[in-house]
Amino acid sequence: MSRNLTQPEAYIPPELIGVSKRVTPKQFERLCRKYRDLRLELTSTGELMVMPPTGSQTGRRNSNLTYQLGAWARKDGTGICFGSSAGFALPNGAVRAPDASWIRREKWERLTTREREGFAPICPDFVVELRSETDRISQLFSKMEEYIANGAALGWLIDPLARQVYVYRPGRDPLILESPETVSGDPLLPGFNLELAALW
């Protein structure tokens, strides 16, 4: 659910208008602390992205998505679940905040306390992006490819507008599911089946 700062319909704080130079990771962290009400992302080339608050319908869908993943993760116990506010510093230098994600517990526990408190320098094993009405599908395709290239083992791009789910895995073309009732996380997330009725 990202919006480029050059898009006029996105709310842009005055000091960020016209930002054209590369934003460094330290500058990015300062901006995130200053603008806590905005979800910000940083591309691998240093471009700042702003994500204004979502519409109520998208927020409802995202809440249901995170609830289902979190309930499974608590029962399974092998990993940690994250919501849409968690940012991760990917190996390529981008800082991304998937709408939902999951990391194997042993990978998470290898991080220091300091790394966990900031933008954890890790790519989640599983990521989900949920398209909203203002999202460009082409940008979401690029984000999913980026996650996979940076170490994600499984990714879902859920498009409620078209009732499609794109399933991403390393070394494979995306699998497109048309109006599925559920989508399975096996074998990475054994037993996790996302119920999609509440997301449509």
Overall shape: globular
The spatial strand order of the largest sheet comes to 4-7-8-9-10-11
Rg over CA atoms, rounded to whole Å, is 16 Å
Q: Report how far apart the termini are.
A: 16 Å
How many beta strands in the DSSP annotation?
13
Strand share of the residues?
A: 15-25%
Helix share bin = 25-40%
Low-confidence stretches: 1-10
The main pleated sheet reads as: 6 strands, mixed
Q: Tell me, rounded to a whole number, the average pLDDT.
A: 87
Order of helices and strands: EHEEHEEEEHHEHEEEEE
The computed structural class is alpha+beta
Helix count, DSSP H or I runs of 4 or more residues: 5
Task: Write up this protein.
The chain has 200 residues and is an alpha+beta fold. The protein is 27% helix and 24% strand. It contains five helices and 13 strands. The strands form four sheets. The chain has a six-stranded mixed sheet with strand order 4-7-8-9-10-11, with helices on both faces. A three-stranded antiparallel sheet has the order 1-3-2, with helices on one face. A two-stranded antiparallel sheet has the order 5-6. The radius of gyration is 16 Å and the shape is globular. Residues 1-10 have low confidence and may be disordered.
